[in-house]
Fold this protein.
Amino acid sequence: MHKIIFSILLCVSFNAFGKKLTLTGFIADSSSGEPIYGASIYESKNNQGTTTNSMGFFSLSLDSGNYEMAFSAAGYKTQTGNLALYKNTGIKILLTVEIISTEKIIITKNSYKGQSSDIQISKLDLPLKQIQAIPSILGESDPLKIIQNLPGVQSGGEATPGLFVRGSAADQNLVLIDDAPVYNPFHLFGIFSIVNSDALKSFDITKGGFSSEFGGRLASVITMNLKEGNKNKFTGNVSLGLATSKILLEGPLIKNKISIMVSGRSSYAHLFTKQFMPKDQFGSYHFYDLNCKISAELSSKTKLYFGSTYSGDQFNITDESTYYALYYAKVKWNNFNSSLRLNHVINKRLFWNASLLYCKYNLITDVKQINPYIATYYLQYKTNIEDLGFKNDFSYFINPQNTFKFGAIVTQKNFAPDAAVSINTEISQLNRTIQKYSAMESALYAEDEFSVTKKLKFRVGGRLNIYTYKSYTYINPEPRIALSYNLIKDWAFKASYTQTHQYLHLLSSKGVGLPTDLWIPATEKVPFKWADQFTVGLVKDLPKKNISISLEGYYKKTNHEVSFKEGVSFMQTSNINAIDPDEVSWENNITSGTSWAYGGEILLHKKSGRWQGWMGYTLSWSLSQFNELNNGKPFYNRYDRRHNFDITLIYQLTKKISVTASWIYMSGNPITVANSAFNLTNSNPSIAPSVPHYGIVFDYPGINNFRMPAYHRLDIGINYKTQGKRFTKEFEFSVYNAYNRQNPYFYYILSSGTPATGTSNTTKQISVLPILPSVNYKITF
Amino acid sequence: MSFKTFTYLAIFFGLFFSSCIKEINEDFDYQNKIVVTSYLSSNDAVFRVELIQNFRANTKHISENYEDIPYIIDAIVTIKNDFGDERQLIYDANDECYSIDSASFHLIPGLNYYLNATTPDGKKITAKMTLPPKIQPPTLSIDSSSSPYTITDSIYYPIYSMKKDLELKVNFSASGDYYFVYTTVFYSNHYTTSSTDTVVHGISESFMSYSEKPAYLNNNNTLETKTTIKTESYDPVTSFDLSVDSVLIKVIATKEDYYKFVNSLEKQSSLSNDPFAEPAMLYSNIDGGLGIFTGFTVSANTVKYKP
């Protein structure tokens, strides 16, 4: 074991003997000064401990006396030492990065932070080192893609953006970068997320048992914090890949006081892909993202942060290969979010975080389809959503067994959803006005995490949401409760109940492959949705092997889930040609219902060592029932997958070479497809004239009536790393979908001929991501 | 660039950017089923039930041709009422449907009727419907207003037009079922067209218009509807005769099954050419099959128009 014994020499205050004292401090990376989130502070005499928050801060109340302390974090060498605590004390601990060697590593319990000691259930915290070791696609290590391989989290399918957590829709995830929300964290088709893993300091996802601090979404909370920048020296890295290249620079503006981190990434495939495509069928795609963070240590107790993320995508496609269906599409979107945060240690037990938050998301989709025999269809989708918020969080560390958190947030939300479908008239020539919506979402929260006995911990809290739209105000309290009971050595039973409300919806088309997502607010006609979730779990830690095993079950009911009505053409009224601004209302085209999700998850996770990785399995169900859909019958949701299995392994072959492999299997997801047709006939002339008398009609047996084949693929990679005096060089070769599994992206029926003479209909399957080898070269300096 | 290098690059980028489109023989869990179409009314002299087969949506040949319709001609079809009175319907090759004379089997409003059909290959369907009760003839009051004529420039010559709005207030006794109300406006000028948000049909030398939307009734069982009569002509001399003679008001009482089926058909047909429309499920009340087995009653009244 790499054990560094150190002594913390403290002033002795004899008059403090026998009293409760407080040890506060920050834990940071020794080389960069970067605060470490989730680092463990453990006192072995009385088995007490705590962890650092996202700013690296901790507070631990202890009786005066001598203690053997351990400070640890995943990927860092553990520091242990003796502490003589006789007065309230503030310290700063610097941890050194652990170099994984091929020799056997001995891990003691003190250096291992297991899940059994944490009250939080359903939390997945992958060490960033582990994320960066696993290439997900085209050599990009991507945290939001990698968590799709973990139990309870899945992608919508091949090349489908969005995270689907425990059977919930993609709009139910609260994605935060430095506290500021992100509405679409993916680049086109979900192949890449907008997060450059090199720029991240921390990353985790919580699927249930949410802290009262978080609200506004029903399914998950994904928190990411950008690096603060190296406070000691200028460093950086440059990475060149086939699909993208990226650069990161960080360093002190004023040494040990103000640091900056800037990173950027851009794709460049659009520069040369057209040359490899047919003249009548081509597309181009370009994306980029930028991250920046400035951190200033105003005093030993006060820090100021400014962080910002910007991403952009543009996609064009032209298909003139079939003369009876010319197709042109253009999609463009941007994410921008920014936060200004102030952290202040008010006193030895009270920590304050104030954040001013801003985010904006725009999406424009323009589609034109020309059928010379029928019509020219135009579709335009625009989503514009903007948030401006102010948040205050307080953490009061009463004692090691009791932490009280409280705070408030207020957010002004502006929406400008717009969609129009037109036949033979360009959208821009229609006399239309885009409706704008404003709403105010506020919340107060408080929660107390305390130990009843040495084995039993509770976290009891609540959140009071206040949502205002026009003259309507909704006040919704949300109870939150969680408990943890240590059964026997390193075994813990956990349970939680949370209620959450969501005041915005994402409307997605079931029939179109291109992004047609519209963010809309809850209004007087469109209800807000709310969910109750129950979660129970068993956690077992194997400290000597650095392994944790968790088994969880969950049940979630969501009320007022919204969806488009059957047969509507998105945001249109029945008259598709004559668009009257007064008549166009998306509120009339949606309906609400109830959904349920339940299942079980098993995860075996090894976070460090020569062998690392995880193995997970999920058995789950997700279904909905709407009075106005599917004839009122329940149906499986589009993201319902019965079985989900994943195994991911990282092996340090030598000091320079590591290999990775990841295999994922998911049951097929259901889709809506017509499986039969018939000739409509009628021999009664006296029936209502509106009943069609002839024609071919298609029978959709139900919503999501057909389950696609199972999805599976294997990704492999090898990494060669050399350490020089000034540079570290990494060469990575990876293969996505190594055995070239043709996972279906979607099906469509191709018709030729006319109804009068007869048509020939054939089914086509599109698979979009075949075997994709890639290379990546990275220099760190 | 050498040929070898070019080949390697081409293979590499080909893999990298290609997507795969292939034809598959997937039937999407298709099942061969009996499709029933039957709208029964006590006013009819013959009651008819049509049986056809469905086919795979992605079959190689789909046709609207009459001779291509896969009628089922060898099924055993029976109809039964609440009292257990059961009759077999006989296949009529001329009408290509199973029928029974109303003299042999009476349809009584308010009763339940049960349909059974079995084919030689073992397919079986059952269905149930309730015949809506008869309603009293509707009454109608009319208010009208005319607007001055307008001239619209077309590419070739001006079009002269004039509008007259008819405010129709239909009163009838309702029993909580679904109603389709049709107003037919009779007038003589054959240049005249009329519309009530819907379709225009021609009958002999007169014209009529329909109000096809199902009637959602207020507490007084009153339906208020507006019919706009419009004349259009290239000849200003002959076009402006808007004299309305009479209005026929016809109320069709139906049950929920009828309304849901018609509504789902309308959704599917109106958006069938829209590639961006949500899928529309076709309603059916046939157990084991597809289609509709339902009934309706008709009540009508003609009201003379007095300006």
In short: Confidence is low (pLDDT under 50) at residues 1-17, 101-111, 573-584 of chain A.
